[in-house]
């Protein structure tokens, strides 16, 4: 229940989204929480792919993996650019993970469904991964479409061309859109183009396992709002009744 004292603040935030008619969501660590074991499984599969590809030890493979990720936006783009790796084989391998630990999130489903307008997923992963994960969360039926790394011609967020291709493909007007992302640097270009940006951070008490350069605190100029409770934040945007 929303406390009466919070109501003006919530209404003020909601007013900042009154113009939005297109709601865009990243997938990994955004539509499911960072405390989930799903991304660590995928991350491990990426390292394993590189171990098998290069014959390196785990530590060296992981260092190279993170180098490509930082430089190119995804490890895959680095592998394609510098080693001619087959993208389809990579995507199938790294996303071949057990998703059963993800539970249906009915609160999130209801909160997204209540938003006025279109809902889209924008991911650096594959379409199949996005659909399988959204289905596991019981939110797949809410989204109009998924724009994945293949649709972006393997040009990943945060590169400007990825957003250009996304907006062109789906006729998205940035100034009437909101983007929810867990990686702050992926909000720089959208914010510059006029999107309302929301950084989704790990839940309170979650141990941060990212690289130091990835960690953001929401005070960056390209971050309009920050939340560690996506469903609760979205519920606040559509709540119009007074607390009982």
Sequence-ordered SSE layout with sheet pairings:
Blueprint: H1 7-15, E1 22-25, H2 38-54, H3 58-72, H4 75-83, H5 87-94, H6 106-113, E2 118-122, H7 127-137, E3 145-147, H8 160-170, E4 177-181, H9 188-192, E5 196-200, E6 225-227, H10 230-238
Parallel strand pairs: 1-2, 1-4, 2-3, 4-5, 5-6
Helix pairs in contact: 2-3, 3-4, 6-10
| Total DSSP helices | 10
Average pLDDT works out at: 91
**Which structural class matches the secondary elements?**
alpha/beta
Based on DSSP secondary structure assignment, what is the total number of beta strands? 6
Rg, rounded, reads: 18 Å
Can you summarize the main beta sheet? 6 strands, parallel
Give the distance, in angstroms, between the N- and C-terminal Cα atoms.
8 Å
**Which of globular, elongated, flat, extended, rod-shaped describes the shape?**
globular
- The amount of beta strand, in percent, is 5-15%
Provide a descriptive summary of the structure in words:
Helix content is 42%, strand content 10%. It has a six-stranded parallel sheet with strand order 3-2-1-4-5-6, covered by helices on one side. It is built from ten helices and six strands, in the order αβαααααβαβαβαββα. The protein is globular and about 60 Å long. It starts with 6 loop residues before the first helix and ends in a 6-residue tail after the last helix. It is α/β, with parallel strands linked by helices. Helix 2 packs across helix 3, helix 3 crosses helix 4 and helix 6 runs parallel beside helix 10.
